[in-house]
Give the backbone structure.
Amino acid sequence: GENVEQHPSTLSVQEGDSAVIKCTYSDSASNYFPWYKQELGKRPQLIIDIRSNVGEKKDQRIAVTLNKTAKHFSLHITETQPEDSAVYFCAASLNFGNEKLTFGTGTRLTIIP
Amino acid sequence: NAGVTQTPKFRVLKTGQSMTLLCAQDMNHEYMYWYRQDPGMGLRLIHYSVGEGTTAKGEVPDGYNVSRLKKQNFLLGLESAAPSQTSVYFCASRYLAGGAGNEQFFGPGTRLTVL
């Protein structure tokens, strides 16, 4: 089955700086890669996703890049703000033919004011 | 719409006791999932269902059972609780159409402690 590794496990950045979280996956057939954000004490929520027919996707201050050859994808947050402090999870799956997401172990991002 | 709801929010059990966690969704989603979240281990899939009357094992199914008698409800049962089952449990649901590339909507979680 799919295995997703996520690094780093914790990350602290100054407010206004950029943050990058990286994930690698094992199954070359995977073609759907979402990112979920979980604020303290809250439920995980989807913030952005990418499919393997594109290499990059942006949504305001967040972007995700995908390198299918190397089997890794990354979350980029620019101009970080205090409300970006949360745990971020990457995940991987087949878009069709597989009902399950395999999640990474999470990155706790802390924005330092 | 309430979205995905979970009952109860908190529970403390003694080793060997049994309990059932209830997940309900009002979005007419076909797929439903139960995850457990432990520090440093992310979200691990326990069981899931692709429709009313169906269930399937996930990554960590041992010690748990599930039932999906109605499309809107997905029950997670612990027959004989163990301290290793102390965790936060999340339910999630999503539409069938569009494959896995549809957002999973999570419930608020249930914090379970087994003494």
Observations:
- The mean pLDDT of chain B is 94.
- The longest strand of chain B covers residues 31-38.
- The CA atoms of residues 11 and 112 of chain B lie 5 Å apart.
- Chain B touches chain A through 24 residues (CB under 8 Å).
